[in-house]
User: Fold this.
Amino acid sequence: MEVIRLGYPHYKDKNKLPATAAALGYFDGVHLGHQKVIGNAMEIAREKGLESAVMTFYPHPKAVLGQVKQEVKHITPLPEKISLIEQLGVDYLFIIDFSTQFASLTPQEFVDQYIIGLNIVHVSAGFDYTYGRMGKGTMETLPFHSRGMFSYATVEKLAKDEEKVSSTKIRGLISNGLTDEAKGLLGRPYTTAGIVAHGDKRGRTIGFPTANIEFNDPYVLPSPGVYAVRVRIRGTWYYGVCNVGYRPTFEIDQPKRSFEVHIFHFNDEIYGEQATIEWHKRLREEKKFLGIEELVAQISLDKQRTAAYFGISGD
Ligand SMILES: Cc1cc2nc3c(=O)[nH]c(=O)nc-3n(C[C@H](O)[C@H](O)[C@H](O)COP(=O)(O)O)c2cc1C
Ligand SMILES: Nc1ncnc2c1ncn2[C@@H]1O[C@H](COP(=O)(O)OP(=O)(O)OP(=O)(O)O)[C@@H](O)[C@H]1O
Assistant:
C-alpha cells in the first residue's frame, strides 16, 4: 500500500495519480462498519479496473476544531490504522493533514481539490458521511458537488442490536470494561501496544510476577478491573491475566492507572521491551483486600477463570 500524506493546499498533480475508487472517513478502529465501506470501494475498484484507496485525516477533526480539550483517545492510533487498512488489501492511503484551513473549505472546494483533484473517480462512504465546512456536505449533496466527474455509492448502516456500529460506541464499551462486546463490533479483539516498565517488584514476592505495561499512544484504555488477556512479546502470543487500576490493597495512593499482566508460563526479563495486550474479557472489579493472603487466593481464582475462558490448562 502506498501512503500519500497531503496538507492544505496540496500540490499533487492529478495526472500523476492513478484513477482510484476511494472510501472516505476518519476510520478510528477500522471496525466492521468501516470494513463494509472500505470493502465496497475495493469491490468497485475491481469491477471498474481502478486502484482502491482510503482517504482519512490526521489529527482528529475534534482536536483541531477545539471540540475536545484533551488529546482525543483512539481505538487505533495512526500507525495501527495504517497497518489495518493495509491488511485489508487497499492500494493507496491518502492521509490529509486536518488543519483549520482545510476544515474551512466549502463542500464544493473539498470535492474539487481533494476528490476530483486527486483523480478519485469513485467515492464510497457511509450513509452519515459529511464533508466540507461545518460538515455541510452530505451523501445527498454529493451528486451535485461531483460535477459528473465521479461515481458514488452510499453504504447502508451496519447495526448491531439496532444500534449503529461506530467508533464512539466502541470507545464507550472499552472504557466501561466491555472489551468482549467491543470485539464483536471490531471484528477482532481490541489491542494496545506499550512498553514494559519497572514496577514495585512486589508481584514476585506474592508469587505472581507481573509485567507493568505503559502506553504512550493516546489509547482508549479499559476501566479498572481484572481481565483475561493475551500478550505479544517478541512476536509470540502468551495468555495472561491483567489487573488494571490502582492496587488499593497496598494503599500506595498511586495517581495513575497501572496495567499489570501476570503472563502464564513466562519468566524472561523483558524490561524496556514492547508488549501488546489483546483485551478479551473483564472478570471482576479491582478490590481492596484485607491482606496479602486474600489477594493471592483471588489471583489464583482469576488465573483459573482466565484458563477456563481460553480453554487452556490452568497450571
Ligand atoms: C490477576 C491480578 C489481579 C489483581 N487484583 C488486585 C486487586 O483486586 N486489588 C489490588 O489491590 N491489587 C490487585 N492486583 C495487583 C497486585 O497488587 C500487584 O500485582 C502487586 O501490587 C505487584 O505489583 P508490582 O509488581 O508493581 O510491585 C492484582 C494483580 C493481578 C496479577
Ligand atoms: N455502521 C456503519 N455503517 C455504514 N457506514 C459506516 C458505519 N460507521 C461508519 N460508517 C462510514 O464509514 C466512514 C468512516 O466513518 P467515521 O470515521 O465517521 O466512523 P464512525 O464509526 O461513524 O465514527 P463516530 O463514532 O466518530 O461517528 C464514513 O463514510 C461513515 O459514514
Observations:
- Residues 24-27, 33-34, 36-37, 125-126, 128-129, 155, 157-158, 164-168 surround adenosine-5'-triphosphate (ligand 2) (CB under 6 Å).
- The chain has two domains: 2-164, 189-310.
- Residues 61 and 67 are 9 Å apart (CA to CA).
- The radius of gyration is 23 Å.
